[in-house]
Write a structure and sequence with these properties.
- This protein is α/β, with parallel strands linked by helices and 226 residues long.
- It has a single domain, classed as Flavodoxin domain (Rossmann fold, 3-Layer(aba) Sandwich), CATH 3.40.50.360.
- It contains seven helices and eight strands.
- Strands 1, 2, 3, 4, 7 and 8 form a six-stranded mixed sheet that branches.
- Strand 7, helix 5 and strand 8 form a beta-alpha-beta unit.
- Helix 6 packs across helix 7.
- The longest helix has 27 residues.
- The model has no long low-confidence stretch (mean pLDDT 97).
- Bound molecules: flavin mononucleotide.
- Flavin mononucleotide binds next to helix 1 and strand 3.
Length: 226
């Protein structure tokens, strides 16, 4: 089983990265032979899509001055595609968006009378996992991001499934793994009520467990032989 993680956040120990680590732990403890690769989007030698649209006639991206050809092959080969990002202005962080714009070269697009059709050059049959964290208390803060992933995934056909792990009211590095006691000085500094610390520490613990469980569940459902 092959897993590709595209990590779009700038904080290596940020909350979305920690949740991603827990998801991967769930995979590895279920199938130690799973092949997991993580790409830190901002460090990768991958440029912006130039919008040349030659992918529509050539069937692949024509840009030659970066590592996209290799990386895109590994994305295509993955069974599970994990996209990790903080929520920035109710959208994904730009290093990940840069990668997803390059996904344009994965399909042929035809403009129709009332819209457009997308035909992937290769069959896509993946579990897509979006792992997100944001600072607000609002339950719907990441809805535009979820919609973005749903819309993008649908272009790759009905054999793909989206799963989400989304943490709210997470601000500082390490927040998601902090105990109620550890959250107290942070909440004082952030000027938010101290009485939220217990509820938040418990919710964060449950979120970490759900990330682990999702890794385990997806691995089990694909079978150890893959
Ligand atoms: C540029 C920027 C934009 C942000 N925009 C939002 C936002 O729209 N909504 C929100 O709830 N939090 C927002 N935040 C807070 C982050 O989403 C939050 O700190 C998150 O936990 C960061 O994820 P990380 O810990 O994985 O880096 C923003 C933070 C930054 C730096």
């Amino acid at each position: 089983m092959k897993v590709m993680v595209l990590n779009g956040g700038p904080r290596r120990k940020g909350n979305s990265s920690i949740l991603s680590g827990e998801f991967i732990r769930g995979i590895m403890e279920t199938n130690p032979e799973a092949e997991v690769e993580e790409i830190i989007c901002e460090r990768a030698n991958v440029g912006f899509c130039r919008g040349c649209l030659q992918c529509n006639s050539k069937g692949h991206c024509v840009l030659k001055n970066d590592d996209w050809a290799d990386i895109s092959r590994r994305i295509l080969d993955a069974d599970i595609l994990v996209m990790v990002s903080p929520v920035y202005f109710r959208a994904i962080a730009s290093p990940l968006k840069k990668f997803i714009d390059r996904f344009r070269a994965f399909f042929y697009v035809r403009i129709t009378e009332d819209g457009s059709t997308h035909d992937p050059y290769e069959e896509w049959k993946k579990d897509w996992v979006a792992i997100l964290s944001y600072g607000s208390s609002a339950m719907d803060e990441a809805d535009p991001v979820k919609e973005f992933f749903e819309m993008t995934m649908e272009l790759f056909g009905p054999k793909n499934t989206l799963h989400t792990i989304i943490g709210r009211r997470l601000a500082r590095v390490g927040h998601v793994t902090s105990t109620a006691e550890e959250l107290k000085p942070l909440y004082e500094m952030l000027k938010i009520p101290e009485e939220w610390t217990h509820e938040d520490a418990q919710r964060n613990g449950e979120l970490m467990a759900s990330a682990y469980d999702l890794g385990k569940k997806l691995t089990e459902s694909r079978g150890k032989k893959e």
